[in-house]
Amino acid sequence: MFTHYTFLRNLAFVLFGGLLLVSCKKMVSIKAPVSSLTTEKIFANNQQANEAVSGIYLSLISGTKRISTNLGWDVFSAGLTTLAAGMSAGEFYPYSTASIGDEYYLSTNALTFNNTQAPTNIWSSAYKSIYIANSVVEGIEAAASNNFSDSARKVLMGEAKFLRAFCYFYLTNFFGDVPLSLSTDFNATALLPRAPQQQVYEQILQDLLAAEQLLLETYAVSGNRRTRANKWAAKAFLARVYLYLKNYEQAAAKATEVINNTSLFQLEPLPENVFKTTSREAIWQLRQAEGSNSGLFYGDVPEADEFIPNPPNTSSPWVYISDELRNAFEPGDLRYSKWTDSTTGILPGMPVPEKAHRYPAKYTRNPGRLPASVPTQYLMVFRLAEQYLIRAEAIANGAPGGEPEALKDLKKIRDRANIDDLPAGVNVLDAIAKERQTELFAEWGARWFDLKRTGKAAAVLSAVTMKNPWLGDYQLLYPIPQIELDKTPFLLQNPGYTQQ
C-alpha cells in the first residue's frame, strides 16, 4: 500500500508538479503543456497511463500539495464544497461566535469580493484538477506506443472526461459562468473569458455521454473498490445533471438504469453502513491515502477531520447543526440519531445551548488515530439514495410514472429512516425537497444547489435569522476570486460584488 501511494504521489507531484505550480499563479492560463517527451513516458503502456489517471483522483482527494493541514478549506472535492455550501445553505453554523472570518461570512451570506478564501480555493483546486484531466486527455490522444492498448485508452479517456465534467459541475454551480478550459495550451487558455453556464453544461453533458460509452460496467480498474468512475457512475452523474437542467424524462431514465442494476447497487438497510468502504449503496467514492503514507489524517475521510471533534463527544465542535436542519427531521428519524452526534465540550467562557453541540457525523474518526489503520469509510460522491430522489423529483415534474411512483421512491428512503408514510394529499414536490434536505445534508452542497435550482433560495434563506439582513440575491453565486480578475481583463465579476 505504501508503494502504491508513493507512486501516485510521485506521479501527481513530480510529473505534473511543475504544471500545477504554474497553475497556482494563473489558474486558467497555465503555461506548460504536456510535452512529447512527457507523453511518451507517461503513456508508454497501460500501467503508466492508468497511474496518470490515478493522479487526477489523487488531486481531488488530497489536493496538489504534498501535505495539507486543512484539506477541508484547501480542496473543493475534499470537504470544502460541503463546508462552504453547507454554511451558505444554513445547514450548519460555526461554533465560534466571532463575527469575522470565512465561516461567519459564509453562514451569514455576507460575502464580499475579498473577505473569504473559500471561493478562491474552490476555483483554484477545481481548475488544477481540470488541468491534470486535460493533460491526460491530450496525452492519450497523442500517445503512439503499441504497448498502450485500445481498450485501456477508451477506459482511461472515459475517466478523464468524467472527472473533468465533475470539476466543471461544481464550478458552474458555485460561480455561474466560468472559463471553459479544454486544453493545456497556454495560447488557447491565457485570456479565456467566462463561458455562459449553458455552454458549460453542454460540455459537461458531452464529456459524460462520452464517458458513459467508454467506461467499464464493473469496478475492475479499482480492484472492485468503488473508487474509480465506471459506466454506472457516469449514468448517475447524468441523472443529476439532467435533473438540474430540468430534462426530467432523461433524469428519470438514467436514474432508473442505475436503480435497476440490483446486482451492483442496493440501499443499505442501516444508515450507519451507508458510508462504509463496503457500502452496496456506493456508486462512486473517493479513496483517501491509507496506512503509513496517509499524512496528517490517519486514513480518515477529510470531512471527518473537519466535522468531528477530537475527542468526538467531549471536545467543542467546529460547526453545529442549525435549527432549520434540526427541525426538518421527523420524530424517530434514524438519520438524525445515526448521522449527527453530540458533544458536551464547550470553549471556555462560551456557554452555548445544548442544540449547538450537535454536529454532522456521517463519517467517523479513525479509532486511536493510528497511522497504520485501514479506513472503514471512503468519501461518498454518488450513492443510490440520491438516484431514488432524482427519479421521484423527475416523475413529480412530469416524467413518466405518475405521482404514485414518485411516492414509492420516497417511501424507500423514508422506510430506511424509520419514519412514517407520508399522509394522503401531501404536496409531493415539497415532500421530495424535505427528503433531500434530511437525506443529503452535509453532502457536497446538495441543499445549497437544490435551493438555487428550484428558485427557492432567496425566500428560504432570507427568512433565516442568522442571515438577516438579507444583503441580496446576488449572494446565490460566489464572487469570482479577485486574484483571477487581476490577471485578465476578459474575466468579469459576478453582479453585486463591487470593490470596497
From TrEMBL:
Gene Ontology, cellular component aspect: cell outer membrane
Matching SUPFAM superfamilies: TPR-like
Assigned keywords, A-Z: Cell outer membrane, Membrane, Signal
Signal peptide positions on this chain: none
InterPro entries for this protein: SusD-like_N (IPR033985), SusD_RagB_dom (IPR012944), TPR-like_helical_dom_sf (IPR011990)
Gene3D superfamilies noted in UniProt: 1.25.40.390
Domain RagB/SusD: 362-497
Highest rank taxon of the organism: Bacteria
Domain SusD-like N-terminal: 110-243
Annotated compartments: Cell outer membrane
Predominant subcellular localization, coarse grouping: membrane
Keyword Signal: yes
Family: Belongs to the SusD family.
UniProt protein name: RagB/SusD family nutrient uptake outer membrane protein
Organism name: Candidatus Pseudobacter hemicellulosilyticus
